[in-house]
Amino acid sequence: MTWETAPTANERSVVYVIDDDVSVREAVDDLLTSVGLEAQTFGSIQEFLQARRPDAPGCIVLDVRLPGPSGLEFQRGMAESGVRLPIIFISGHGDVAMSVRAMKLGAVEFLTKPLREQELLDAIQVAVERDRVRRQEDGAVAELKARFASLSVREREVFALVVTGRPNKQIAAELDLSEMTVKVHRSQITRKMRAKSLVALVRMADKLGVSDGGA
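Above: the chain's sequence. Below: its structure in token form.
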């Protein structure tokens, strides 16, 4: 059995296993350790929420039925708890309606016990990669926001009009500026945003939620 994309030293990932059955936690922990993955195990949602989580890509292997809040209840309230990790549900009962609800809410997989090792590993691989991509996208947006924040108020106004495709002359008229001033602002915007073209600026504006009139 192999983990096809085992993380390197610079790509640490963590799998959080939440199950009130000690034997299940230990079995999954042993499996993940055997393929080079780090696991943290918890007996309840409360234990997981109280623990300090490393800043690394990962996922949650979550039992549906738990003492206190159930796995599905936790999934529905994840945003309020500040948790954005992908979930793989595990259950001792093959409840089709329950699995459908979980998948509609974004679960990566719904597996029944006893767990098939390769099936679980495959699901974890998909979940961790999904979280890694999400983190990369978040990082890219954060960097764009920092660049946008470096623009002056006037540059932001020009930026919002530039990305609508308005020519310099029209922008100048709308903002009561000279056409030369608009050209200077456009040059500064392109440099600060590190955009190679108008198309690149438009894409950045879309990610930032910048519209005519500002962000």
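The longest strand covers residues 58-63.
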